[in-house]
Amino acid sequence: MASKFTELAIDCTDPSGLARFWCSVLDYEVQDEDDGIVTIGSPLVPDGKNHPGPVPPTLTFAYVPEGKTVKNRLHLDVNPTDREQDEEVRRLLGLGARHADVGQGDEDWVVLADPEGNEFCVLASRCP
User: What predicted TM-score, i.e. pTM, was given to this entire model?
Assistant: First the structure.
């Protein structure tokens, strides 16, 4: 049997604020908040770690005192579900994201950064 991807841990200076941002991006909800650590996940699969099939991974935001200093070695890609890419980019910018240049050139995805500067991509294709 192989492993199942269930959680991504993200260091940050404001776990609650960054969790709120990503809850809005992904339509997730806070599942746990305790002592500088906030875990968010899909409301459709609240017990995802025990679910036998594919599940949306949870994101855990953990407080660290230092800020981000270099380009991410790992980043999230998101796909719009109910709107086109340009509309989704505008929505995410309104939530507090900003455009980021990581040397991507002229591609069909858009690179943004979350409120703490973590880069992520908004892909052109829509996923139901």
Answer: 0.87
